[in-house]
Design brief:
Length: about 260
Amino acid sequence: MHYFVRPDSIVRKIWGKSDTILFIFGGAAAEFALNKAVDWLYFTGKLPADPLGRLFSTVAYARKIVYSSMADAHSAIDNLRAIHGQVESNRGASIPDWAYRDVLFMLFYYSIVSYELLERKMSATEKEEVYNVFYRLGSRMGLKELPLTYEQWLPARESHLESDLKYGEYTADLFRQYKRQLGGLRYLVLSEGQKLVVPKQVKNLLKLNNNSLLRPVVSVYKMSRKMKLDWLLRNMLLPPKYKQQIEALNTVAAVE
C-alpha cells in the first residue's frame, strides 16, 4: 500500500507517542491564541466552548493523515478544506492564506521541538523529511507561497512570527478557558510546558520567562519511560475525561 507517510518515517515516530503530541499541542495552544486570525476560531463558537475537545479532534485528524494511505490522506485533507470552505461561506469572507500557512508552520515547528525535547536532536535530513510531509499537506489544501524546503521555511517562519501574532481579547479569553477546563494545577503545568517549546516571540507576548519548573521534571519523565512508569505521570497531569483519549494515541501507534 502507498502511504502518505512512509511506515519507517521519523514523522510516525514523532506522532506515535502521546507525550510528544501533548507538547506539540501545548505549544500550539499558546501560539493559536496569539494569531491575528484567531477570530475565525471563534466564529462557530466551538473552540472557546471546549478548547481541549477541539485540541483532541485536531490531533485525531492529523494522525489520520499521518497513518493513512495516500488516497485516504488526500480524502481527509480535501474534507478538511471543505469544512473550512463551509465556514468561510457561512461568514461571507475568506480565511487569509497566511493564516492557513501559520497553522501548518506551527504544527511543523512544534513537531520538531517537542521531539527534540523528549527524545534527541534531529538531523537536517530528518527535519527536511518532516517538512516535506507538511509541505505536501499544505499543497494538497491549495495553500500559496509555501517554501519548497526546510531551509527556505526558516526565514518564512520568522516573518510569520513577527507579523501575524498579537496579544488581544481573544488571547486572554482562550487562556481563561484553558484554566477553566484544566484547573489551577494542570494549567500551571501547561504554562510551564509551553515555556519549553514556544519561540521567543510567543514568550514575549505572553510574558513567559525561560525558567520552566518542568525542565528537571522532563529529565525524570524521560527516565520513567524507560522504567515503564510514564503512564503514572500522565495520569497525575491529565484531566480524567481525557485520559482514555491520550492513551488511545499510543494504542493506535502500537497497532500501526
